[in-house]
């Protein structure tokens, strides 16, 4: 149920103000001819609601753990294109007719976005007060402040790092896309006004140029900072701009066979993307063009022709989910996060079915009683009242959420011993334990930053640890046991970089070069023992690549020990302990352990290395997790500070046990 943060949310910018989109459109001509958009008059676009339904259902099902839909997260890209098409169309029309007003534009945005946003944000904060522990509530308040300022994407880009607790446990992570979109519409209307005034014939060229620049920048940034490419506007702008390009004045739309081919081709791209694109692929970049172009083709093929695709997209269920899609987007992710906290024993299918059902019900209630009244009752919610009320609510949010953060989530809500455990969520010992920035490279660092004179052993006999954080975390705990045995210990490690030569890691562009550097240093140092470790994938293809690295080491007569996968939990261990202390649950229970995943991989790896001449396999799980129960704490101190990484005490606990396996006594 851990979702891949960095690939998991979207914003549905559904625009339903008829005056903006429909006013001034001429009558429809012959259905079999090519039409000019300026002459169309649609009271309802079934294909738009259908696209919204596909997008929102894809993302919701993905977030609730439907493994059969690995690319459901591309719903964000679908909605960005829809947003660009609908909103840009209204901007172009009003600018050309000299009726554009920034006040009116942002009043319409506020009417569409803010009512449900305010209610859901407030509800999430209230639920968080009763469900979350103080440190978590303080973190939630920070994301609420960022969301209120429509900068959630910047906040999550700045605060999400390798050692942060699972991003999937952040109830408002999904609001990053709302930030992207609103930042776009701060800039775009002014750009259209400027181009229309000074270079009116260059509008299409400017839009195309920006699309190309953004796509290229997004692809390049994937190799420099995948997180920036995912979260920040310059590298997402092309998705909205594709819709803006499609909405350009005097755009012609096809009919007949061409329209059908475009619509079906677009649907094929969207469905194929949801079925075959996975979180392992570099994204967005060029790959994001698959759902974006697919969405544009559906709109282009259906905009002037009511065909079979339009009829399917406008069917009852599609229309229903299309209408509630914005509210469904807002409510589903807090439900997905809080459900894990409340229902400890929920299984995969219960989580999926009940999660989708409850999200749908709440989304309909939000649409019916929050969105619609504010949108339709303009006699009561006239512009000045709407702006004043929304402004006061957002200002109050900033004050209240800043207070919650300043109060550190009100630690007085829980007993002192629980707060002591929760303090490990912000683990201060990781810098010293990992030797971050010196022997363990941070994500932005390269091999040039590695301090070989401080990190590699100088004497004999010697042991070197090579890999990522999952081996670096043992350095602290192995020092004393190895020193007793006469060994000098060193490490050459980097964040997120498995010790496999030739392996490209999307989230860590520096890994390839660092591993080349690492193996060169290892062969030069010639340690008496090389210990490598990570969260291994035990598939045959991955093991074949791994074996090539081991073969190179074996050819140099370097003795290798491979450590198996570490204990992996569903929630940060301090949260598990605090939850059990509060509820009086036995700490020995292993309900929160990712049991099937880690033990199946461990068994596959042990089988793979049985009888191998290239490496000796040591199972961490068999060493520490007696009867397949992995300890959470030692004398009340958490052994892990998140779902997998060890505290200093945990490193010592594991290190003592592993030293006996690495250096067995006769």
Automatic annotation (TrEMBL):
Q: Mind listing the UniProt keywords for this protein, alphabetically?
A: Acyltransferase, Membrane, Transferase, Transmembrane, Transmembrane helix
Q: Which residue intervals define the domain Acyltransferase in the entry? A: 48-367
An example of a Pfam family matching this protein is Acyl_transf_3
UniProt cross-references to InterPro entries, sorted A to Z: Acyl_transf_3_dom, Acyltransferase_3, SGNH
GO cellular component, as recorded: membrane
List residues of the SGNH domain. Answer: 450-659
**GO biological process terms held by the UniProt record:** lipopolysaccharide biosynthetic process
The organism sits in which domain of life? Bacteria
What is this protein's name? Acyltransferase
Species in which this protein is naturally found: Phyllobacterium endophyticum
